[in-house]
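sorry to bug you again but im stuck and you know this stuff better than me. what follows is a protein written twice so to speak, once as letters and once as structure tokens for the fold. mainly i need to know what kind of three dimensional shape the backbone takes. anything you notice is useful, everything is just below:
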Amino acid sequence: MLKEERKPLIVRQLLIENFRGVKSGSIDFLGHTLLVGGNNAGKSTICEALELVLGPERAYRRPIVNEHDFHAGRYLDEDGNPVYIKIDVVLLHLPEEMEKKLFSKTRPWSDAKGGFVDEYGAEPEDADGEDVVRALPLTFIGYYERKEDDFVGTTYFAHPVEELGEDEEHYGKPFAGLFLPARVENPVRLHLFTHPAHRTSRPQPGTRLAARYNPSAWRHREGVDVGKHLEATTRS
């Protein structure tokens, strides 16, 4: 009996908070995706958000973020507390060995249910659906560290979350209870083609594009009329 071929590793979902021109927004990537839009539509922001979470080269840049990466340049609130850049990514179809190694960091995901099926209120049988796969959620947190007088940022496993007591150091912070990936188990290395020529070039005639970014999926983005500036077309 032939072994069923595993699907390739994909980014399934992206959520962004306080990064560049995006106050809050999310995208569901369905199949192959092409971003098409005019200047300041958010194409580069999406690519750079993915790079912050997954790109190995970006992780070594110092500082990894700066004041211009925060929405409206605002990295402190009115009380002088840090404003956090938060970028969440959901990966599906991990390579078999990686999935085994990181199984405790994964969660069950169903496209039919529209997300994770272990949320509060879910039924046990929800995790037994035919389309349920293991998903690896990751999150990047970036902020201004007053003690170091510098900007810092790190990618964490977003699951599981350890419960902290009120007297513990990071209690109440966005990264409280999250685990750092060890260097040896860096879950994925993403190679993004972000050269301007790639970002702005148009598909050549006859190019077959199996799926397209749906502008309606770019939800809750504030500050830009995304429906007007960012659009996609489907070729058969």
User: Anything to note?
Assistant: The two ends are 35 Å apart (CA to CA). The chain has one domain: 11-230. Helices lie at 43-54, 96-101, 196-200, 226-229.
